[in-house]
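Give me structure tokens for this 138-residue protein.
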Amino acid sequence: MRTELLKDICQTLEQVGVRPTHQRIEIMKYLKEHRVHPTAEMIYSQLKEAIPTFSKTTVYNTLKLLEEKGVISALATDEDQVRYEANMTPHGHFKCVKCGALFDLNLDGVAPPEKELDGNLVLEWQVMVKGICSCCRT
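Here you go.
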């Protein structure tokens, strides 16, 4: 499975014209394996131990590049944080107001808006639901 994931990551990066460097592969692998919608700081703190040459600048620049190329998406939260994910399938997000957890929300039956709304071109759409997660409710 690990070899398949690495091949998939390298292929994805090459398809959008991004050279698959060790740092870029590790960031993509982290996003695919840890679907917690991490911030750049969270990614840096997790990967710096395994890759001592990692810098915050590398993480920020890589995330910006991957977002520009459409390989990952960035979610702006109400705490002025930017969180990242590699799940590019249509879905929403649930944010727990108690513990701060942010996770994917299945949106079966919810269709994305048309490419144009009231004369405006839609480039991206996000659904964010806030509430109390099942863990905090118990």
